[in-house]
Input
Amino acid sequence: METVFISKLKPFLDAVAEGMELYVPKKTGEHYVYSRYDPSAETPVEFNNIRTCTPIKEFLFPLRELAAIFPEAAEPEEVKPFAVFGLKDCDLRSIEILDKVFAEEEFRDPFYVARRENMFIILSDCSEPGESCFCNLFDGRPFAQSGFDLNVSKVKDGFIIEAGSQKGRDFIEKHSELFSDVPDGALAERDENRAETQNQLEQNNAELRFDAPIKEIVENSQDSDVFDVEAQNCIECQACTRVCPTCHCFYLYDTTQKDYFAKMKMWDSCMRVGYAAVAGGANPYKILGDRIKHRLLHKFVYFLDRYGINMCVGCGRCIDGCAGGGDIRTILRKLSEEAKGKGKKKAKIAK
Output
């Protein structure tokens, strides 16, 4: 892949913003969120060493949008090209999962596809994975090898920019005056930084190496009491599914405007008590523990069976966002221990 070098980020970001809307990470407290890039701002853009707390799906699958109108058909609004800087490998893999749902086979969501085709993806390497990060359990890395338009790696004297697509190569060629050749030793420094971060991830999650595939562990644990035990701390805030970059459930509801009827699409959550309720009043997931079980089955079994990839990218956002202190890794570890026979006694529900 083509690599170039730049000493400061601002000229690069200014060049991106000249041709499209650009969103960049902004530090808020201990976390990063995305905000619209302002070339005139005095505060420089930070190079986020960890993924943002907000999921990339917000750009492709908005919280709320118009899906259809009557009597006229609803056509997707024109989507202008836009770029997102500071995405990580887990974000890129989450887009791959969303593509399976919204842009493949017989069902293609025109709203999603329009945004996806106009998105310019600018990744950056991770260098400070959080305690909640466990992407390495699902073949994730602190850097991406393909699937991006441009990737930015921070080194001692500047930034290495790598093109991963024709769009990325075209951008570098168009703005060639901004870039120089990669200095001697910079690529070796980048590779060393990547190896150190990967090693840190491995150390952080050393105790989460299971004797069996996670799919097998979850699929064979449907009678376990672990789900009900974990449900005791859940306050049903639904944050785990809201901040998850791959959760894609939505519901449709009708509304009226001045001269037409509209059908709106809005995020939904399988953790909501009424999620699975039907018109007759029955609800197969009325019990919270069953909803937690269903969530894990969807992540690690159902989606894998249908599409061949796990629906979890190990980003850890659900762990950070859980108001009840829940940790999906704890559930997997307990289920694994039961599967190995260490937990032959069923988990006891605290009183």
